[in-house]
Amino acid sequence: MADNANPGNFANRPKEEVKAAAQKGGEASTTGGFASMDPDKQKEIASQGGQASSGSFEPGSEKAQEAGRKGGSTS
Length: 75
Hints:
Elements: H1 15-23, H2 39-46, H3 62-70
């Protein structure tokens, strides 16, 4: 198992669980998440530019700065 304790990362899951998810062939395994949120809530979170994230970026990194600039904008 990897050092990152993020359960959303397949590398951190038991092989049996990964295999079961792969066998679903693209079916949604959960009903929650960002995509299912109210659009206003999505915009509120996005406008924080990564501040509300679980730590995907190193503070002050180029990627974090880019995400901050994009926060709240539509693609």
